[in-house]
Amino acid sequence: MSEQSLKQDIGTEYALELRGVTKQFGALNALTDITMSIRPGERRAVLGSNGAGKTTLFNCITGDFPPTSGSVMFFGEDVTAFPAHERIRRGLRRTYQISLLFDGLTVRDNVYLACRGVSRGRFSMRRANGDDALMHAAENLIDIVHLDDVREATVSDLSYGQQRQLEIALALAGAPRLVLLDEPAAGLSPSERKDLVSILGRLPTHMGYVIIEHDMDVALRVADRVTMMHNGKIFKDGAPEEIENDPEVQALYLGGGHD
Amino acid sequence: MAQSETVSATDATKARKSELGRKLATVPANVWFVAIILLLVPTFTGDFVQYQVFGWSFVLGLISLSLMFLAGYGGMVSLVQMTVAAVAGYCVAIFGTSGVAEISMGWPWYLSVIAAILIATLFCVATGALAVRTEGIYTIMITLAIASAFFYFTRQNYTIFNGFTGFNGVLPPHLFGIDWRSPTAFYYLSLFWAAAGYFAVVYVSRTPFGLALQGVRDNPRRMAALGYSVNAHRIAAYAFAGVLAAVGGILLTWSNGQISPGTAAVGPVIDILVIAVIGGINTPIGPFIGALIYVVLRTYALDFLVALNLSGERFKLLVGLGFLIIVYWSPDGVCGLWNKFAPKLRLKRKENASTEGKTDV
Ligand SMILES: Nc1ncnc2c1ncn2[C@@H]1O[C@H](COP(=O)(O)OP(=O)(O)OP(=O)(O)O)[C@@H](O)[C@H]1O
Ligand SMILES: [Mg+2]
Questions:
Q1: Strand partners, A208
Q2: Would you call B224 and A88 a contact, using CB atoms and an 8 Å cutoff?
Q3: Whose CA is nearest to atom 3 of ligand 1?
Q4: Which residue of A has its CA nearest to B237?
Q5: Total H helices, total E strands in chain B
Q6: How many of the other CB atoms lie within 10 Å of CB of A229?
Q7: What are the pLDDT digits (tens) for A200-220?
Q8: Contact residues on chain B for A62, CB-CB shorter than 8 A
Q9: pLDDT for res B30
């Protein structure tokens, strides 16, 4: 019943639908015929060993590069041929596995740029002043990711963990409908991981995300469904407990690739 | 309700005014110093220095500033900026009045100036639209190709561009009863537009558009992932740079009194890059410093070389040598040198001033 009404509210069943997405790099099949769908507000973890194709999957979804074949639907709209920025303006967001930040700018300017990118006035020739609504939004995001102590700091002066948090802030700008998080927890200390889990837990419930995560413990805590990838294919798909207890997954995870 | 709105509106203007006052107060002393010196130059220099040295430097600096904006903030080295300036120059000659009455259409000066800026900017945008899909060396190549195509086209086309001879007698209007081509008047005219261009670039660099442009330069992939159209931003930068170059081109044409294919031959086209690099291609003041150095070398090296019994043409050798030395010692040009050594000088002064007891560093 509630699912039905949700469907009607949004007018579409899925936030994201991939149909037969394939990506080849020369002779290498990085992704082979990936078909999956994610409901609005869903929290999905993607697991898989190194080179399984997880980041490539994100790149195809966001349009960083196009898939070799297959299609990507975002809230019922076929965005396969759209450039990245058009997808972002429709509510898709992402973080990068290797931080892609503006090293010379302050934390605030980084987040401000992100807020500007998904609003009007990208070409504005008027300087932002203190009571700019977007500046407020930026300050707010800085608080959400717990960077309030370093808002004036230049990115190159931040610690690794802080840079990862800033990555997340950039992906939360505007009104995201689906956020793709590429290994946000990698390289974080245990306390930083806890922080991350709490940041994710406090996101509004209508905001879905897909999180790539090597650490089963983190993945199982922040997701309500898990997709396991292997060699560019979907290997298993299910509820966290199912995946955790699946003998094949266990064999794969203990056997290879996980480091 | 309406009253409270008007009250808040006057409050806002008041706030804006006091903000302006505060901003003026924060302008550093050396900027005031330079501004006052520049305003006073005509009181202690002759016609030649005002017109041939400073006037020319301001104009070349302005054209070079348009390249600095694209290269420094946008990461796009466009060699088409002198051509954009020449397009504007040709437009004032063709739409306005010149010695070639068969072609010139005799529009009033303000119409021909507006048309010139519009058309030159469109030309710059069109070039940009072609160039933004390329990176690095390919941007240089495609813009150089367009520049030389324009040069050869104007040289061969007689119906519009009057071929090899171009247009002479292209003069500024006698506005307010002033002959704007007289040395002192032209000095202030070109100073005004150079300063306007400089402050416009400084201002724009901190606006959302300017910040995003620098984001596109440093990290285009991330900018796309933040919702920015990378190409649209780059093309918009060409539009802004086009206006700067167009204004510079009109002033250049007025100061020479003529425009011909040679104005935007490959040599001058590359000189604009050399000027920006010598001065510093990452800061808006760089092109003006570079232009002054270029003009001084060009003007006085000739006499110097002739005195040494060398051909005057060799001044290019001097410019080239200067270019080499500066690029070798400081990729950020003269401004880079300044940034490198000024803090040290200041430090020394402080050290000298401080008592000997302080040994902690
Ligand atoms: N731009 C590219 N050009 C060529 N090959 C690529 C490119 N990007 C990824 N690959 C290859 O595609 C395969 C999948 O890479 P991908 O980065 O998607 O893996 P991943 O699952 O994210 O791994 P990791 O856990 O190490 O991040 C790898 O073999 C990789 O070498
Ligand atoms: Mg990856």
A1: A178
A2: yes
A3: A25
A4: A123
A5: 16, 2
A6: 23
A7: 888 898 899 999 988 777 888
A8: 225
A9: 77
Q: Which atom of ligand 1 is nearest to the CA of A56?
A: 18
Rounded to an integer, what distance in angstroms lies between the CA atom of residue B157 and that of residue B166?
10
Q: How far is CA B105 from the centre of its chain?
A: 29
pLDDT tens-digit series, residues B289-322: 999 988 888 877 777 777 777 766 677 777 788 7
Tell me, what amino acid is at B11? D
Q: For residue A111, list chain B residues with Cβ-Cβ distance below 8 A.
A: none
pTM (2 decimals)? Answer: 0.83
Q: pLDDT tens-digit profile of B154-190?
A: 988 888 888 888 888 888 887 787 777 788 889 999 9
Helices and strands, number each (H, E), in chain A? 10, 10
* Structure ipTM: 0.85
Q: Give the domains, in start order, of chain A with CATH numbers.
A: 1-91+177-259 (3.40.50.300), 101-175 (no CATH)
Contact B219 A100 (CB under 8 A): yes
* Distance in Å, alpha carbon of B206 to nearest chain A alpha carbon: 6
Smallest CA–CA distance from A110 into chain B, residue: B215
Atom of ligand 1 nearest to the CA of A59: 18
Q: Is residue B269 a contact partner of residue B82, using CB atoms and an 8 Å limit?
A: yes
- Distance to chain B for A51, nearest Cα, Å: 21
Q: Which two tokens stand for residue A223?
A: 């997701």
Give the H or E element holding residue A31: strand A28-38
Q: Using N-to-C axis directions, what is the helix angle for B266-279 and B56-68, rounded to 10°?
A: 80
> Is the Cβ of B304 closer than 8 Å to some Cβ of chain A?
no
Residue B319, classed as helix, strand or coil, is helix
A52 touches ligand 1 (CB under 6 Å): yes
In chain A, the N- to C-terminal Cα span, in Å, equals 43
Residue B229 pLDDT greater than 90, yes or no: yes
Pocket test for ligand 1, best of A23, A49, A56 (most atoms within 8 A of CB): A56
pLDDT tens for each residue of A169-205: 999 998 899 999 999 988 888 888 888 888 888 889 8
